[in-house]
Amino acid sequence: MPANLIIVESPAKAKTLEKFLGGAYSVRASGGHVIDLPVKSLAVDVDNGFKPLYAPIKGKEKVIKDLKAAAKSSKLVLLAPDPDREGEAIAWHIAGAIDPKIKVKRIEFHEITKEAVLEAVRNPRHIDMNRVNAQQARRILDRLVGYKISPILWKKVRKGLSAGRVQSVAVRLIVEKEKEIQRFTAQEYWSITAFLKKDGALEPFSAAVHSKDGAQIKIETKEAADRVLKDLEGAVFEVSEVRKKEQKRHPYAPFITSTLQQEAFRKFGYPAKRTMSIAQRLYEGMDLKDKGHVGLITYMRTDSVRIADSALSEVRKFIAQKYSEKYLPQAPRVYKTKKSAQDAHEAIRPTSVLRDPGSLKNILSQDQLKIYGLIWKRFVASQMESAVLDQTSADIKAEPYLFRAMGSVIKFDGFLTVYEESRDEEEEKTGLLPELNKGEKLTLDRIEPKQHFTQPPARYTEATLVKVLEEKGIGRPSTYAPIIGTIIDRGYVVRDGRALKPTELGIITNGLLVKHFPTVLDIKFTAHMEDELDEIAEGKIDWVAVMEEFYSPFKETLEKAAKEMPKVKMEEKTDEVCEKCGSPMVVRQSRYGSFLACSAFPKCKNTKDLDSKGAIVPESKEVCKKCGKPMKVKRSRFGSFLACTGYPKCKNIVSILNKTGVKCPEKDCGGDIVEKRTRKDRTFFACSNYPKCKFATWHKPIAENCPDCGAFLVEKRTKSSVTKECSKKCGYKTQE
Description:
- The protein is α+β, with helices and mostly antiparallel strands.
- It is 31% helix and 25% strand.
- The chain is built from 16 helices and 34 strands.
- It has a 6-stranded antiparallel beta barrel with strand order 9-10-16-15-12-17. A 4-stranded parallel sheet has the order 2-1-7-8, sandwiched between helices. Strands 20-21-22-23 form a 4-stranded antiparallel sheet, with no helix packed on it.
- The longest helix is centred in the first third of the chain and has 28 residues, at 129-156.
- 34% of the residues are buried.
């Protein structure tokens, strides 16, 4: 048996390291944290220096036992969790759980390649207690805020609610954006566009009215637009000035965590959590056959844009060979990392630029290939020459008005040949202009007035929320995805298409927290706490001192809020009457959505389930096949189901399947295609005769038959189109 042991987090990473190291090391996986603050108590001794009372995580006892046994037969234990504060804390906890007499060192690597792992093994270090203390301080801060504020919300609003130091600030941002939208009043305005032709040209170009008698004008009503149109009757359009200038567009820095999450959402609609899950798999690596198991990207939780010299050298050679020398800048591009970044990490990049996305088509899944391709293209583009555009602006007189036309053409594509970043908002589009000369007369093809209304501010999407969290210094790379996941799971926010919209619960809870915990919910205070955690990690300040500074005023606020926060009944009156006691029924909220409840609760506990459209779900006439008692409709996070009223003696449940109105296409099946949900809350469609029939599809079936083979059609939606395709994949396809 090997004399040395390496402990990593994931089993996939363990297998990779064993291949790299041969028989010199045994490699085991901890599966993440093995020790943490227990869930059922505060587990922080606030009167004794905020001492955390750690305990083994439930279910991890066997893992700890196995790691202890493996460590006992080893001369040296190298701890290799992920290279961040969380990983440092995991290493510290593992070191404390195994025999203290055993020699323990810490290693870290930012990419899972043989060279990087061997280099890390050659250079072990001691556990960095400053990093550990920074993670510990964050964990305790979050525990104090969550476990101290949440019970107040249970008493004042509803059981099961939670507050969080960072999640509550994220909800506040979303709620405040919603209030901006509600306050917004649309203003009418008009644009007037002339479509003009140069002599001999086949197609007209457009120019928009800009000014009158030298002063820029606003056209706010139809009457004003009509006056402009009348003034322009018979007007002569003449070019008064042409301006041309060369403009450069520079490439973007390689990805950091936040920019990768934003771009994956814009381009593919991927939530932050999904993006990070895919990136984690790419970091842990794939079996490349000729090269063995190799990590494909560097560590994906980073806020540094630094690139290793070896990677810069490789990508510059690649650009020169693949795209020619004209695409290669004279010197490598260096991007500035923001002050708060942990510059120990690199930017997110491929471990080898020679592994282009095309070479991995048969190895990666579709999702993995999309994210890898994004990372690869952004990295290559970041070291390429700037794009050069010729921009033309022309002023056209039509007395007493001036029209302005804009056009641009790419003169040299530069980095755009590889990659172009998406935008959150549509940029003003410009087309091509013909060659125009001062004094040249133009022919009016047509003139178009158009009514517009100013638009309210857009709701946050996951991309724009991550962007604002980063800009305001709220959270860090490893926390963006969990923040968004938590506020959705808790029911404070819902996805409305691509946007994030606060629920009534989110609005009410936010209002109470902002009023009674103004400091904790303050955006600047939250950012300040993040800066202090960074300073703890750098060894500049003591973590206990930070906790003491926070807790004393927080304790006073808690006591005051417990007395002064009003009780809120989250209910909406209805015309429904309880058939059991005659009291009015009200709409109340649960973690699974809305339901009808008797207003006489707790004397009368009558409730009725509501569907997603707010309609009452009819009472079931089903009888339990196990005990003969009536079945009642209940609701879970996966949808409604029938449960025996004899619970807990009888625990029989039956799923309620939402029929699509389409029959299963499998021969001699006859089942209905029904809507179902996965454990990760993703919708799919399957045959009601499962497990006898295992037909399933991610795409929504529609009650239309394929004109070629007669099978039902499925609807496939992308960001820009909707297509109908044959469910049997006979080749029929039509785009809407």
